[in-house]
C-alpha cells in the first residue's frame, strides 16, 4: 500500500482553509466514515447464490447444444450457439438493455408459475427467416413491419424449439413449455414488476455468416419452487441416481433376454437289459409317477414349480399350480 505524503506547503494550505472556515474538520471526519460504508442497491437484490447460478449455467449449456442441433437441421446451414453469460438483474434493467424493436417469444412453463421470455436479435431472426424461405441466410432488419406470413414462419420455428427447452430442464424439473405469445416491442411486455429479480442467460449465436445474441429471461417467481434443486449437492445426487437407474434398466433388460431351458419330465422307471431287449410294439412301461400327483417344471434342470399336464391350442402344455419352495418344505 502506497501512502500519500503531503508537502509542507499542502499542510499549510489545509490548516489555513480550516482556520478561515472554508473547510470544516468535522465534515472531513464524516466523509472518512462514510467511505467505509458499502452502498447496497435494494432494487438489485441478489436472490440467487453463485452455486445456483452455476447450475442454471449448466442447464443452458445443454440447451445451447440442443438448439445448435435443432437449428442446424431446420436451416441446413452452419449454426453455433454457446452460453456467453448468466446474470441476475432487475427486470426493468433487462428491458432497457434490449433493442427498442426486437423478436420476443414468450413461453409458459407449466406446472411452474409465470412465463419465460426469449429475446432474439433481429439480425439472427431474419437470417433464420431468410434460410427458411430458401435464401442464403442474409440479415435484413425490418422488425417494425413484419408481414403476417413472416410472423407465422418465425413463430413456428421457435415453437418447435420448445421441445429442446423441456429436455434441457428435465435434469432439474419436468416442464411443458408452450409458445404463448410473439411480440416485437418490449415496452408492451410486462411479465413481472420492474424490480423483480430475473435470471438472464445470454447465448452467443452464429447462423451462417450472421451473428448475434439470444437472451433468455427467467423471472425469480418461475424458479422459486425449484431453487433447492439448483444446488450442486442435489445436482450430483440426481445425476448419480439417474446413472444407477440407467444401469439397473440395462442390467434388467439384458437378464430378461437370457435364454433358459424349461422342461417337464413325465416320470421315470428302471428296467433291466433283458426287459429292454424283449420290448415289442404296443408294450407299456409303467412310470413311477402317480397320475393323481403333479409333475415338476424344471428350469435348467432345477425343479421350480408344480404343474399339471394338458393341451393348449392343440399342443401339449403344462399349467403351473404352485411354487415348489412354497408347496414342498422338503424341496
TrEMBL record:
Q: Name one Pfam family in it.
A: FliMN_C
Q: Which residues form the Flagellar motor switch protein FliN-like C-terminal domain?
A: 254-322
Keywords from the named record: Bacterial flagellum, Cell membrane, Cell projection, Chemotaxis, Cilium, Flagellar rotation, Flagellum, Membrane
Superkingdom is Bacteria
Q: Which SUPFAM superfamilies match?
A: CheC-like (SSF103039), Surface presentation of antigens (SPOA) (SSF101801)
Q: Which GO terms describe its molecular function?
A: cytoskeletal motor activity
GO terms classed as biological process:
bacterial-type flagellum-dependent swarming motility; positive chemotaxis
Give the Gene3D superfamilies listed for this entry.
CheC-like, SpoA-like
Cellular compartment(s): Bacterial flagellum basal body; Cell membrane
Could you state one GO cellular component term attached to this entry? Answer: bacterial-type flagellum basal body
**Membrane topology label:** Peripheral membrane protein
Which family does the entry's similarity section mention? Belongs to the FliM family.
Its protein name is Flagellar motor switch protein FliM
Which organism is the protein's source? Lentibacillus salicampi
What are the leading ranks of the lineage?
Bacteria, Bacillati, Bacillota, Bacilli, Bacillales
Q: Gene that codes for this?
A: fliM
